[in-house]
Amino acid sequence: MEKSNTDQLHEDPADPLAKSVANGQTTTEDAVFGDITAEGPNYRSVGWVGTVIIMMKLCIGLGVLSIPATFDAFGIIPGMFLLIAIGVIATWSCYVVGNFKLQHPEVYGIDDAGFLMFGKIGREFFAVGFCLCYILVAGSGMLGISIGLNSVSAHGTCTAVFVAIAAIVAFMGASIRTLGRLQWLAWIGLAGILISIFTVTIAVGVQDRPAAAPQDGPWKSDFAIAKRPTFIKAVSALSTYIFAYAAAPLFFPVISEMKDPRDYTKALLVCQSGVTITYVVIGCLVYYFCGSYVASPALGSAGGLLKKISYGIALPGLIASTILLLHLPAKYIFVRLLRGTKHLTSNSKTHWIVWLSCTSGSAVVAYIVASAVPIFGNLVSLIGAVFITTLAFQAMACMWFYDNWKSEERGTLKWTLMASWAAFVIVLGVFLTIAGTYGSIVEIIDSYKVSGGSAAWSCADNSNST
Predict the structure, then answer these.
(1) Paired strand residues for 25
(2) Average pLDDT over residues 177-204
(3) Is the pLDDT of residue 266 over 60?
(4) Could you give the CA distance from residue 2 to residue 319 in angstroms, rounded to a whole number?
(5) CB 311 within 8 Å of CB 81
(6) How far apart are the C-alpha atoms of 356 and 175, rounded to whole Å?
(7) Among positive and negative, which fits the CA dihedral 145, 151, 155, 157?
(8) Cystine design at 397: which of 11, 73, 263, 425 (Cβ 3.0–4.6 Å)?
(9) Average pLDDT in the 256-264 region?
(10) pLDDT of residue 451
(11) How many Å from the N-terminal Cα to the C-terminal Cα in the chain?
(12) What is the structure's pLDDT at 302?
């Protein structure tokens, strides 16, 4: 446990659930948060079921509704195969997160893992990447909320107003101090998003044709079993799959707030099974019924009325995702600033000032960049391409090598196969990073050729294209 706010980490051999009783008060001794008592926030209060819900909510957002359009790039069979393949890699990466945390209880975020592996440079690289990525993704969530509000209100007011409202709501929710107290929001949000996407899936199945298809004359879905996409289309579709499984870095702070981190693997397997089944079912069914006329996100595929209903049901899910995505990077900054001090787990004035500064600062940055940058969507894709694969896949492969390079099993068949797999993940990650960055840059150039980007703080209805 760190005793001061420095760049040093110290191994803590204590049981992560160790408790002591002094003066009639039970204290939980945690390698990250220090002494947790009833007088301050309980940062170790999430059970394994609550962990499943939080993890699934971090994974499943409206991004799942971009998956059917990727099947139009690859075709159903190759699309399903690639989606599951990325899911397998992501599940292994998340599994490594749990093992690494148990081996090194003092690790709170991926930057701590970076410090153990690569020193100060590793810490700062992963810290910047983590905060930059997920604060901007939270900004994307604010835009998603504004799209939902525009859809259900028929563009009731200026979009910039809706984005500001989303930012305020996200700040208020993200300022709830512990994941244990955010569990209820994750439950509601996950239920809302699942009901919404399955409503659209059922609707496109029972309707005569999708909203974007020709409305006159006979129509039949033009779905394809397999297709040959261009390189840019293939890279874009693969990037969608990677984003759909890009929550692994967020699982570090989640496991840190579990009552018993040893339940993490059980929660992970339930989470990833549910996420993958949802992705495959939604992707296959919506693309099967809509073919090349599938919308992205797919909520617009069933027509105007269903679009309003679906977005109305999905709004709690959009809000929950944005709150969690804002909460976790803000919590990381907060823990790093106060780690090793009494203020981290107390209700002191310093605690509250630093905590609210972290959440409000993160919200303001996400709001300003989302509203002011004309190519915000492309910017998120570019930053995601540069950092996400490294954060979500390659870092975990490096963690496996860090913990197993000097293992007693080294040289055995099992060790060799696992080392080969970890090396494959690193090489694949390099390719996907380069290819994704190239694809994102091409998309930015094409976007400017078409429209020059959107206006800053625009009032235009941003739900028209979804």
Answers:
(1) 22
(2) 91
(3) yes
(4) 34
(5) no
(6) 7
(7) negative
(8) 425
(9) 95
(10) 58
(11) 48
(12) 66
Task: Express each pLDDT in 344-385 by its tens digit.
Answer: 999 999 999 999 999 999 999 999 988 887 666 777 778 888
8 Å CB contact between 131 and 361: no
Buried-state track 147-183, b at ≥16 Cβ within 10 A, e below 16: bbbbbbeebeebbbebbbebbebbbebbbbbbbbebb
Distance CA 102, CA 51 (A): 16
Half-sphere exposure of 7 (CA within 13 A, CB side): 10
Per-residue pLDDT averaged across 311-339, rounded? 94
Summarised one tens digit per residue, pLDDT across range 418-443 is 999 999 999 999 999 999 889 888 87
Instruction: For residue 34, tell me if it sits in a domain.
Output: no
- Is 86 within the bounds of a domain? yes
How many other CB atoms sit within 10 Å of the CB of residue 325? Answer: 29
DSSP string, 420-465: HHHHHHHHHHHHHHHHHHHHHHHHHHHHHHHTS-PPTT--S-TTTT
Boundaries of domain holding 421: 46-213+222-450
What is the distance of C-alpha 358 from the center of its chain?
Answer: 19
Q: What tokens were used for 461?
A: 């209805």
Say if residue 452 is exposed, middle or buried (CB neighbours under 10 Å; 0-12, 13-18, 19+).
Answer: exposed
Q: Give me 246's structure tokens.
A: 């890009």
262, 47 Cβ separation under 8 angstroms: no
Written as six digits, the tokens of 442 are: 């091409």
Rounded Cα distance, 303 and 297, in Å? 13
Give the per-residue pLDDT at 220.
87
Which residues on adjacent β-strands are paired with residue 35?
Answer: 29
Is residue 127, in this structure, part of any structural domain at all? yes
Residue type, 37: T
Answer with the residue of higher pLDDT: 452 or 461.
461
Domain count, the chain: 1
Query: 9 pLDDT band (50/70/90 cuts)?
Result: very low
Residue 433 lies in a domain: yes
Q: How far apart are CA 197 and CA 381, in angstroms?
A: 23
**Domain CATH code at residue 209:** 1.10.4160.10
The residues with which 21 forms a beta bridge, in sequence order, are 26
With H, G, I as helix, E, B as strand and everything else as coil, classify residue 104. coil
